[in-house]
Amino acid sequence: MVFAVQCPNPKCRKFMLVEDHQKGQIVPCLLCKTQIKVGGTSSAKPVVSKPGQSGPTS
């Protein structure tokens, strides 16, 4: 699954996509290089990867 994460740097706030296997890892922002913990915040949101496919339901 692919997730969107947002850079925590207030001057950047870029969204980027990360793979499910990167959960729990720290990745650099593609723009400002701020370190982002994947899956460590509520800002990680699942992204539908195929048209017509719905996300998880609660």
Task: Please explain how this structure is put together.
By secondary structure, this protein is mainly β. It has strands at 2-6, 15-19, 26-28, 35-37, 45-47. The protein has a 3-stranded antiparallel beta sheet, with no helix packed on it. A two-stranded antiparallel ribbon has the order 3-4.
Question: Top keywords for this entry?
Answer:
58 residues; mainly beta; 5 strands
Describe the secondary-structure layout:
Elements: E1 2-6, E2 15-19, E3 26-28, E4 35-37, E5 45-47
Antiparallel strand pairs: 1-2, 1-5, 3-4
Fraction of residues in H or I helices? under 10%
Number of spatially distinct domains? 1
Lateral arrangement of strands in the main beta sheet: 2-1-5
The proportion of residues in beta strands is: 25-35%
C-alpha Rg, in Å? Answer: 12 Å
How would you classify the helix and strand content by structural class?
mainly beta
Which oligomeric form is depicted? single chain
List how many beta strands DSSP finds.
Answer: 5
The coarse silhouette is globular
- Uncertain stretches: 41-49
Mean pLDDT: 77
Counting H and I runs of at least 4 residues, what is the number of helices? 0
SSE series: EEEEE
What is the CA-CA span between the terminal residues? 17 Å
**How is the biggest beta sheet arranged?**
3 strands, antiparallel
